[in-house]
């Protein structure tokens, strides 16, 4: 898979050195997007108030943090939003602590 900007240069280089090549997929990004679009998130029961995160699609870190915070707000008896430290860039590394025992938090 080669970026469109680099594609012409790469093809020219391959031809210059008589290297055989075969382009099997014209547009990989378009193919991935088409396949991902067909996949719809399936939920066993629809609780519109429950936080939802689609693990079948790549989401940003901030989207995941928002989802984790929402989980902790919705079930504070069992779920706690925590920070386990900071990255080398000084950013918070966040996570969830899930506790199903009787003596919670």
UniProtKB/TrEMBL annotation:
UniProt cofactor(s): Zn(2+)
InterPro entries per the UniProt record, alphabetical: Peptidase_M14 (IPR000834)
A Pfam short name: Peptidase_M14
Gene Ontology MF terms: metallocarboxypeptidase activity; zinc ion binding
Limits of the Peptidase M14 domain: 57-105
SUPFAM superfamilies: Protease propeptides/inhibitors (SSF54897), Zn-dependent exopeptidases (SSF53187)
Biological process annotations from GO: proteolysis
Gene Ontology terms: cellular component: extracellular space
PROSITE patterns according to UniProt: PEPTIDASE_M14
Homology family: Belongs to the peptidase M14 family.
Name assigned to this protein: Peptidase M14 domain-containing protein
Biological source species: Cylicostephanus goldi (Nematode worm)
């Amino acid at each position: 898979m080669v970026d469109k900007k680099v594609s012409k240069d790469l093809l020219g280089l391959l031809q210059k050195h008589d290297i055989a090549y075969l382009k099997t997929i014209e547009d990989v990004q378009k193919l991935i997007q088409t396949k991902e679009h067909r996949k719809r998130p399936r939920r066993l029961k629809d609780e519109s108030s429950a936080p939802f995160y689609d693990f079948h699609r790549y989401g940003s870190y901030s989207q995941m943090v928002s989802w984790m915070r929402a989980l902790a707000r919705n079930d504070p008896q069992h779920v706690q939003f925590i920070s386990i430290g900071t990255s080398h860039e000084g950013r918070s590394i966040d996570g969830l602590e899930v506790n199903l025992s009787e003596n919670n938090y």
